[in-house]
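Inverse folding, one chain.
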């Protein structure tokens, strides 16, 4: 069974990383069950393995952490639900691409609980929403905003890091980076889209939509 953990208050990034590392080692060694950890961080930026230095636009704004997850620069902060996913692919399926696809499906299904249509975009990591009410981009293409980020790492076929869903963060905090190295598109949140959604609402939706996709 997957253990669901929820932390209240802001969890320092160093603390979360150390606890994740310990739990992943325990899962890989057969000493602990799989876990999903729901939490918030204080404002910070993380750099994935593909991060480009030029994408850190305001290096002195918040603390910056180098991390070995996949992806580029990401913001975490209050009002954003971070879900750290510590699942054992030895018990499931040793297919990283399929696993990432299921993580994205999980986020999309969670957003659908609030009548939000989340979508993938080729060449753009994360989950996106169309914003037809906003002016189109300079090339005439429709405006789309990112609402959730995905960044994972696999060690001994156990996953860690995970996803972040923008519920009600300060969207101006994303201005210090080029989110996930993607220019020309914006960032949004559930509340920014006019939905009075809380972190607790999102937690409940994440728990409801997990079993149909992952089987437990």
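Residues assigned per position:
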């Amino acid at each position: 069974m997957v253990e669901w953990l929820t932390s209240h208050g802001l969890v320092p990034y160093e603390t979360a990383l150390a606890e994740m590392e310990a739990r992943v080692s325990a899962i890989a060694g057969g000493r602990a069950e799989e876990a999903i950890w729901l939490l918030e961080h204080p404002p910070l930026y993380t750099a994935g393995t593909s991060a480009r230095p030029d994408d850190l636009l305001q290096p002195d704004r918040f603390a910056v952490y180098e991390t070995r997850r996949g992806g580029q620069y990401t913001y975490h902060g209050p009002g954003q639900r971070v879900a750290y996913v510590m699942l054992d692919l030895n018990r499931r399926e040793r297919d990283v691409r399929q696993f990432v696809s299921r993580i994205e499906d999980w986020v999309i299904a969670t957003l659908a609980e609030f009548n939000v249509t989340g979508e993938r975009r080729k060449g753009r990591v994360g989950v996106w929403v169309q914003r037809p009410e906003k002016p189109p981009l300079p090339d005439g293409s429709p405006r789309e905003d990112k609402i959730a980020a995905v960044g994972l790492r696999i060690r001994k076929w156990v996953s860690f890091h995970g996803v972040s869903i923008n519920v009600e963060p300060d969207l101006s905090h994303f201005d210090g980076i080029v989110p996930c190295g993607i220019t020309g598109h914006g960032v949004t949140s559930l509340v920014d889209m006019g939905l009075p959604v809380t972190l607790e609402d999102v937690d409940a939706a994440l728990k409801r939509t997990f079993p149909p996709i992952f089987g437990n």
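Residues 146 and 187 are 5 Å apart (CA to CA). The mean pLDDT is 92.
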